[in-house]
Design a protein that fits this description.
By secondary structure, chain A is mainly α. Chain A is built from 22 helices and seven strands. Chain A is elongated. Chain B has 28 helices and 26 strands. Classes of the chains: A mainly alpha (476), B alpha/beta (749).
Chain lengths: 476, 749
């Protein structure tokens, strides 16, 4: 559509113009690239126009997504002598970036930093958001930004005529065009509302008294979460636990770095202590704020009704998790696959069923999983403290702390990564021989094993370490 | 197919002296009508699908002219259709994607070329080479050479292309030989203009049929006529063709002052070469080049005397020829030596790459290196160096600044695609039964070979997957799974695959993806397309066809129900009975379905009727970001975003606004026992009173909140807490804030 507008605008000006495209498969998936040439001389006899872009010969590169701009840089389609780059800064992630259980996103900062260095001029902003604001498609904003950048030999009138000529949705497109044009031409956009001022952290009394200031926001958040998750006593237990880690951090000189060990351990501990059992899930899914969020996400208008149906499959194991240990044992022994339920949470019946489950919260303390989690947490914290103190090495302690990233998720995925976590404890952290090799070697081994556990078969190319984390076997 | 091509059809009606504005492939379509074709056929595929799509929509115009149009069963069918021109003076055209389509067509093509034609026949081949093509990379040139079919490769501008279509028919008739017109993908999609002529009603057509059959044994490839046919090609048809090409000046010579050098190039490479010369300061915007050019709009056969005349007296000649082997370069060398002209150094695949597409950068560098090598008088080599170094520097600098290559964006299944869930199920079955050998086919489903599925061990051709599994099966320790689309089934798979497998009692599993169209080529109709109108054809059901062939084990599944697809696969893999087990995986192409349903929904909405819009969502606070869902489905709508939770540093998974509500993510979460984050969101627009009364969430929540405050409930809650909580409770009730304060009080522990 953008290429059609360009051609129409060029014809309006009386300039010879040509476009070609390479559609992705049947113009749907993959990246579709367009190449347009405009010969900015009125009524010129037909020039010879190329069908493929040539490096060093591009006046304007437009990218409707940031990594596409990076790709154009790689191909030398953006050169400092000639090219104006107009790109949206939002990201549409590639599958390879999305499927990692960690954060596999390409570092987009690199492209933002490179842009002004490789291009003659770079116009970069989030066009996706602007398009949403104007109720139109990203191409309209992009077209506006291209025109506003001054790199197009086309008048604004010609561009707007081209949009009008395309008919359908022209009004919305013109709005988007105008917004993009203004931004690229450097006109001050009406000052966007400043981000809501963050209220100064009102750290609760105990946090203020016992913990250094850089940790207050984090700990406050965690305390609120755990009090909500279980009760006040549970939140207090959390702070006790963090204090133990802080002691290691203090001994190992973590203060100048802003307490990296305590920060990471406290964060992971809060997530771990608020592990997602069926009670928690039922609670989260029946909050008024959740229904508001869903409405907003689905862009439901006033007067429209939103029906929410939850896809749940509580397995026997997950039910056993919330039972007292003895009962859980019995249920787990004959565990089969769970039963798939599509629960109409927004209907009265579904809502009440979920609420009922959520009210079991107080019983959680007596559940099998609660005990197991607390025991494993203590084991993990014990290792952090023991090895951290012994080696006075916050780096090693941090490696151990970060292993708690493996304790998360649901079902099979959770089981697998939890096994890996326990294996790291068994074979490295609590293995005398492994420990005897020194803090540095141990830290490296732990990191390798942790990373190996986070790599899945599908995430190709797999790092060499995938199959074989460094493991010292216990002897005799 | 639901898309309409009305605007394009209108362009086909333009008359003498009017200006056509549009795509290259549509210009070819118009040129066919201007040439008075009696019939057109072909098989869809990028980049020539558009020709067929538009003609399929131009029934009225074709009826007026009496032109017969059909979309053929496959390319072999399309080539065989051209047999109408062997005995009768009917002009005909066929089109397909090359080189894959030419492979399929080659049996009929050989016979057609051998017999020769009396009516002009033109084969429009869309050359899908480089540029992200999803087919094997070979040249069509060799087919033209081995069958003695003339090959046109026009300069990629509309007037040139149209002229070559028209001249192509004349050439075909003058030499009694079929002619191929080769168009690269960008030439098909180039937007330009040309002056039209009136359409010409064919001499013989449905309106004025041929009355008497022509019998001529010389046209039959039996001895001795197959021998005389070959000799006739060389003795008569080739000289006639050369005479015509020379007389009509189909190849073009552009003089230039730098006479020491010259460039011989394929017509299709003209614009790219001119751009390279411009960048090197050797040509102007209108194509006036200082280097002489000899442009081959006909790349087979070559005119030896034109080649020798162009090369004589030059120090070096550059051949710009895309693809390998270097047929042109070798032929030019041979022509020169045979004429005993030994001076000009013929340069080609030594400065240009032997293999791979000739992009702007490649040609620029090749022409530059040619000049640096030959150093002709009057060329500013410093400028050449500066241009080439500039490109090199820009690349190097970008690589340095970016640090690592940006992620690639390979094509994949669309949002809501009905084929994706089948591969989710297949993946689950692999987890259960261990690795499976999967024989893949051509079609959208070939994307299953890419992450996150990585399913599919071989691809051997369109509709050939079952045949490709025939020798793996007996030599493999487990049943082999074959995937075939309904497009591939009708193209080739029915006979080559299924019939033979049933006949031999093969013990494999075949999944037929029944999405209703040849979706990868632009959702054209096939024999089993849903809702065919009578004029589009007689529908044939795949299921009946299979039963008729004698397939006994046959199941039909709804693709979106991942668990039941997995169950069916498990049954097929473990069934005790031998013989072919077929699963028809049923799910209409989402692209077509949305095209049909969206306007209806919009209409209803405008009329104030009840319309339900469905999409899926993920609860941010329930998702722990393990990405198991993405690895199991790979839906483009399933993506990631920064976690709104300050305690989580890694992104959470989210469903973006592109979701069409197919339900795969939820079903996959069910089937694989993933997380409980997924939910279906139905937005009821123009809700009825009944909707309001049953699903008013705010009332339910309000009720819950009111109940909490009820004195009786508070009492019970207090008791419940005392019973279940250890330790003293300092602030019973009062919500989060009070609880937080309690946690932070010194006695809180």
């Amino acid at each position: 559509m953008l290429a059609d507008w360009l051609i129409e605008a060029a014809l309006y000006e009386g300039f010879p113009a040509q476009k070609t495209s390479i559609p992705g498969v049947s113009q749907r998936t993959g990246a579709t690239t367009y190449y347009v040439e405009i010969f900015p001389e009125k009524g010129a006899r037909p020039p010879v126009m190329a069908l493929v872009p040539s490096p060093g010969g591009i006046d304007l590169m437009a990218a409707s997504e940031l990594v596409e701009a990076g790709r154009a840089m790689q191909n030398a389609f953006i050169t400092p002598e000639r090219t104006t780059l107009v790109a949206s800064t939002h990201r549409v992630y590639a599958t390879s970036e999305k499927m990692l259980p960690t954060d596999g996103r390409y570092d987009a900062e690199k492209i933002l930093e490179a842009a002004p260095k490789v291009a003659q001029k770079a116009v970069l902003f989030d066009m996706s958001r602007m398009a949403r604001g104007a109720g139109t498609v990203i191409n309209a904003v992009l077209f506006g930004a291209m025109a506003g950048s001054g790199a197009l030999p086309l008048s604004r009138e010609a561009c707007e005529q081209a949009i009008r000529g395309a008919g359908k949705g022209a009004e919305a497109s013109l709005r988007g065009f105008a917004a993009g044009h203004a931004h690229a031409a450097g006109e001050k956009a009406p000052a966007a509302a400043p981000p809501p001022a963050v209220p100064p952290a009102t750290a609760s009394e105990r946090v203020r008294r016992e913990f250094p200031i850089p940790l207050h926001t984090l700990l406050d958040e965690a305390v609120a979460r755990l009090a909500d998750y279980q009760d006040a006593a549970y939140a207090a237990l959390y702070l006790d636990r963090v204090r133990g880690v802080l002691a290691v951090d203090r001994e190992a000189g973590g203060e100048p770095g802003g307490w990296p060990l305590t920060r990471e351990a406290a964060r992971l501990l809060a997530l771990w202590m608020s592990y997602e059992d069926v009670i928690r899930v039922a609670d989260l899914k029946t909050r008024a704020s959740r229904f508001d969020r869903v409405r907003k996400e689905a862009a439901a208008k006033d007067g429209q009704i939103v029906v929410v149906t939850d896809y749940l499959k509580p397995s026997a194991n997950e039910i056993a998790d919330i039972l007292p240990p003895a009962w859980a044992e019995r249920l787990r022994r004959k565990a089969g696959p769970g039963r798939a339920v599509k629960l109409p949470t927004s209907a009265v019946s579904g809502f009440l069923a979920m609420r009922l489950l959520a009210t079991l919260k107080p019983l959680r303390r007596r559940s099998a999983r609660f005990r197991e989690e607390q025991a494993l947490i203590e084991r993990w914290l014990g290792a952090i403290k023991r090895l951290g103190f012994a080696a006075l090495d916050a780096g090693l302690a941090l490696e151990i702390a970060q292993c708690a990233r493996l304790v998360r998720g649901y079902g099979e995925t959770q089981r697998r990564s939890r096994e890996a976590f326990v294996r790291i404890l068994d074979e490295l952290v609590e293995n005398e021989q492994a420990v005897a090799r020194g803090a540095e070697a141990l830290a490296l081994a732990i990191r390798r094993a942790r990373e190996a556990a986070l790599v899945y078969e599908e995430c190709q190319p797999a790092p060499a370490a995938r199959a074989k984390p460094v493991i010292w076997m216990k002897q005799g | 197919m639901e898309r309409s091509f009305k605007a394009e059809v209108a362009k086909l009606r333009l008359g003498a002296g009017q200006t056509f504005n549009g795509e290259g492939i549509l210009a070819v379509t118009k040129a066919l009508l201007q040439s008075g074709v009696s019939y057109v056929g072909g098989y869809q595929g990028a980049p020539v699908s558009h020709l067929m799509d538009v003609l399929a929509d131009a029934r009225e115009l074709l009826d007026e002219l009496g032109v017969h149009f059909e979309s053929c069963a496959n390319e072999a069918g399309a080539a065989a259709m051209l047999g109408a021109s062997i005995n009768y003076p009917l002009r005909g055209a066929a089109t397909w994607k090359s080189v894959v389509g030419t492979n399929v067509a080659s049996d009929a093509l050989s016979n057609l070329a051998s017999a020769g034609v009396v009516g002009g026949t033109l084969i429009v081949i869309g050359e899908d080479y480089g540029e992200g093509a999803s087919i094997i990379q070979e040249r069509s040139h060799a087919f033209a050479q081995k069958s003695q079919v003339w090959l046109l490769d026009p300069r990629p501008n509309l007037p040139s292309i149209v002229r070559m279509v028209e001249k192509g028919f004349e050439l075909s008739e003058a030499s009694n030989t079929p002619v191929m017109l080769e168009l690269r993908i960008r030439a098909c999609h180039v937007h330009g203009s040309f002056e039209t002529r009136d359409n010409v009603a064919p001499r013989h057509s449905r309106r004025n049929p041929v009355q008497k059959p022509v019998f001529s044994l010389e046209r039959i490839p039996l001895p001795p006529h197959n021998y005389t046919q070959e000799k006739h090609k060389i003795a008569v048809r080739l000289p006639e063709a050369l005479k015509f090409i020379r007389r009509e000046q189909l190849n073009e010579l552009f003089a230039g002052e730098l006479r020491q050098v010259g460039i011989v190039l394929q017509g299709g490479m003209y614009n790219t070469t001119i751009r390279a010369l411009q960048q090197l300061g050797l040509a102007d915007a209108y194509g006036a080049s200082r280097v002489p050019l000899y442009v081959l709009n006909v790349t087979y056969p070559l005119l030896p005397e034109e080649i020798t005349r162009f090369c004589t007296g030059k120090r070096a000649v550059l051949v710009v020829e895309e693809g390998q082997p270097a047929h042109l370069e070798e032929a030019i060398n041979a022509i020169l030596r045979r004429a005993d002209i030994n001076d000009p150094h013929v340069v080609g695949k030594d400065v240009l790459p032997v293999a791979g597409e000739y992009t702007g950068e490649v040609v620029l560098k090749g022409v530059g290196d040619f000049l640096r090598l030959v150093m002709p008088d009057g060329v500013d080599l410093k400028h050449v160096d500066a241009v080439l170094d500039g490109v090199e520097q820009a690349k190097k600098r970008a690589a340095e600044l970016l640090g690592m290559p940006v992620p690639t964006r390979p094509p994949g299944f669309c949002v809501g695609c009905p084929e994706r869930p089948v591969f989710s199920a297949l993946k689950l079955i692999e987890r259960e039964l261990g690795g499976i050998h999967i024989s893949s086919d051509i079609g959208c489903h070939t994307f299953s070979t890419l992450p996150p599925f990585n399913l599919g061990n071989t691809v051997l051709g369109y509709g050939l997957s079952l045949a490709a599994a025939s020798a793996v099966g007996p030599n493999f320790g487990k049943r082999v799974v074959t995937v075939m689309g309904d497009g591939g089934f009708w193209h080739q798979g029915l006979v080559t695959g299924v019939a033979n497998a049933v006949f031999r009692n093969d013990d494999g599993v075949l999944i037929i993806m029944q999405n209703g169209y040849t979706s990868a080529t632009g959702t054209q109709n096939i024999a089993s397309s849903p809702d065919l109108r009578p004029e589009e054809g007689n529908p044939i059901a795949i299921e009946n066809t299979l039963r008729g062939l004698g397939v006994k084990w046959l199941e039909r599944v709804n693709n979106y129900e991942v668990a039941s697809v997995a169950d069916a696969l498990r049954r097929a893999m473990t069934a005790p009975e031998k013989g072919l087990k077929v699963i028809i995986a049923d799910g209409e192409c989402m692209l077509e379905r949305t095209r049909r349903e969206r306007p209806i929904a919009a209409q209803k909405l405008a009329a104030g009727e009840r319309v339900v819009r469905t999409r899926f969502g993920i609860d941010d606070d329930v998702c722990t970001g393990d990405r198991a869902c993405i690895r199991l489905s790979g839906c483009p709508s399933l993506t990631i975003k920064d976690s709104p939770d300050p305690l989580r540093t890694e992104p959470v998974t989210t469903v973006d606004s592109g979701c069409v509500g197919c339900g795969l993510c939820g079903e996959a979460a069910h089937a694989a026992g993933l997380c409980p984050s997924f939910h279906r969101i139905e937005v009821i627009q123009n809700p009825s009173g009944w909707d309001r009364s049953c699903t008013d969430t705010t009332r339910v929540i309000g009720m819950g909140v009111r109940m909490r405050a009820h004195p009786g409930v508070t009492m019970v809650r207090g008791w419940w807490r005392r019973m279940t909580c250890p330790g003293p409770i300092h602030h019973p009730g009062g919500g989060i804030r009070a609880a937080k304060a309690a946690a932070c009080s010194p006695t809180g522990s």
